[in-house]
Every structure is written in C-alpha cells, then in structure tokens.
Amino acid sequence: MQKETTEKKYQDLRASTMGSLPPSLDLPLPPSGKPPHLQLLSETTLLNLFKSQQNHLNYFFQNLDFSQALSFTQTLLNSRGTIFFSGVGKSGFVASKISQTLVSLDIRSSFLSPLDALHGDIGALSSADVLVLFSKSGSTEELLRLLPCARAKGVYLISVTSFSNNALANACDMNVHLPLERELCPFDLAPVTSNAIQMVFGDTVAIALMGARNLTKEQYAANHPAGRIGKSLIFKVKDVMKKKDELPICKEGDLIMEQLVELSSKGCGCLVVIDDEYHLLGTFTDGDLRRTLIKASGEAIFKLRVGDMCNREPRTIGPDAMAVEAMQKMESPPSPVQFLPVIDHQNVLIGIVTLHGLVSAGL
What we know:
Oligomer: single chain
Number of strands: 10
Number of domains: 2
Mean pLDDT: 87
Helix content: 40-55%
Low-confidence stretches: 17-27
Number of helices: 16
Distance between the termini: 52 Å
Order of helices and strands: HHHEHEHEHEHEHHHHEHEEHHHEEH
Strand content: 5-15%
Structural class: alpha/beta
C-alpha cells in the first residue's frame, strides 16, 4: 500500500512536469519505491559518523604541541598592533570568525582577504601587527603570493597548518601545526574535520587571551549592547522602570471600589500605596482584589479602603540595581511576583519595574 502511494505521488509529479524536464531527468520510479540516487539513512550510520569525528578530534587533542600553542598565544597577547587573520575558502571563514571573536573580547583584530590585500587592503598592515594565516595544506597560492608583500610591511607572520614541511610554514616567522588524522569525508577531501580543528584551536586561544587580559563582564557586555548578554550586564532598573505618570498610585484611605480604574489602566496589575510625601506604604494587587471580593459581602465592599487590604511588606528594589537582579527577585520564593516598586534610600517611590517590561527589554 505504501509503495503504491509513493509511486502515485511520483508519477503525479512526473506528469505535472512533463515537457519542462529534460529527457535525462524523466526517469521511471525504481523498483525500490524511492526516487533515484537516494539511500536510506540509518541511525547507526549517523551515530558512527559522529563517533568517527569524535575520534578524529581526540587525535588532534592528543597530538597538539602545546609549546607551539603557548608561543602562539603569547605572541598574540604581546602584540602592540592589530592581529590580522587571513585564509582562503572555508579556512577563510574560520579565520574571519576567530577575528570576530577577538574583537568581541575587546582585542584589536581584523580579517584580511588575501585577494583584496593584493589590491590595496594590504595598506592596513604595519610593523606592529601580526598576520595569522590559516591553511590546511600550507600551499594555498593566494596566501603564498601575499607573504612577500606582507613581509615588506614588517608584519610578524604566523602560519597555522595541518600538513608538515609546507611552503607557507617555511616562509613564516612562526608555525603552529594542527594535527589532522584525516577528514571525516569518505574521500578524505571535504575540509570538515580540519576546519573543526581550526575553530576549536582559535576559539580556545581567544578565551585564553580573554583571561590573560582580565576582561570583566562589564567590558564584555559593552561590546554586546544589543544582545541578551549585554542587556543583562548593562541595563539597570532605572533604565527599564515605569515612572511619573505611568505609576498606578493611590493613598491608603482611598476606597477600593474607586481605584479599580487605576488598578487596571496602568498595565501593572497593582496599585502602589503611598503617603503625601510619596513614601511607599504597600501594594494592592489583582490577587488582593480577588481576596477582598471573597471576604466582603453586601455593601461592606464599598466601604473597604486600600489600606485595609494592601500588602504592607512588598518586595522592593533600588534604581541602580541591575535589571537582571530585579527579575531574579521577582522569581524568588515563596512565590513569584509580577512587579517591584522602585524606591530610593529614603523609601520614596520613584518607579515600578514589571516582569512584562523586563521581557520586552530583551532580558
């Protein structure tokens, strides 16, 4: 039955495209019931590939010369100028990514395209810079053509390769050998394992530089202002809180029934109870209103005042606290809350921060 359904779908597709496909693609469905050239991918096959890649990566870790890695890292750490990275093809993508990682860690770095370098961009190089060249074979023609021009600028040259005794390594001031057992590719050609090794090596060195330079969370966050990481380390409560006319305020002597509009109109799910000098006295929430309706009966509800039912000991926070701290405080035991009154050192209400506001800010 399944075979008949598959064959029907294939024949319908074939019929709908007749006239648009060249004769070479107008093929009958093979006896297996599958489109031509496709094999069934088994879980075992995929698992074996992952295990093989793991073994190839283990070979790299077990055979890496850590003295070379240390010299390389120390050279980058001591650089007085910009650390340039270059490569061709997929090695170029890796080099560009590692450069971007360093920039995000507050380290001067840039990617230098070998082709563009020979058409003017080499002017960015100076004698204070380091140029790191990624190449699996060490025989990449574009990089070899770049070398004499870069050396003429006085830049310090480092090659990162996986083949031994290659032209690129012999022409540079330093070489780092990245041991490669073989590519995961069945033909040992597609650079999947070698690129993975390059990425692991480069990113690990980047984190080593981060530690050696004593980069703080604040410095890291300053380079990621639009992301959640940066927002959690930069945004303070005063940056995301509601203030002035946005605050749902009332007095403790106000009747509850007269404050229902204020309770619902400001989108906070609460009333903040204050005195004439704006000192915080308590909060009255949607939950408090429900409890009031359950307890009160008849006309008594119309006589209840906010001060009779409000929470006199609400959680609060200061304006200079980190916004992420406010979120943690809202979620802390014994039960989560949806808002925090923001007060100064004299218990004066200056704002209110809501969980919705924090989420909207990207925290």
